[in-house]
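Sequence in, structure out.
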Amino acid sequence: QVQLVESGGGSVQAGGSLRLSCAASGYTGSRNCMGWFRQAPGKEREGVAAIYPGDSSTYYAGSVKGRFTISQDNAKNTVYLQMNSLKPGDTAMYYCAARATWGCGLRGYEYTYWGQGTQVTVSS
């Protein structure tokens, strides 16, 4: 069973930076696309960024493009989300997720495995 463990959340002031990590374990074959999603209280879950392990293709939500960077360390089965120029609107619980099938993108329903989440709070 694939397990995902996030770390790196916290509280920062607007304009600050945080780096989230997601360590994946339990893979018996190749790892598929992994992504970051977020959900703020009272709002729907939003896809933030995703990365395909084969060629490192990346996908970003328009709201974070240019500020967030997703990357991976295939040797460690770990995906990172570097978040710069954070805004109060980025405040949310951030979840790491992994697909079980080929393909990649920001549609949450296409992801099978989910982490427990890590809280990011940005104050003005």
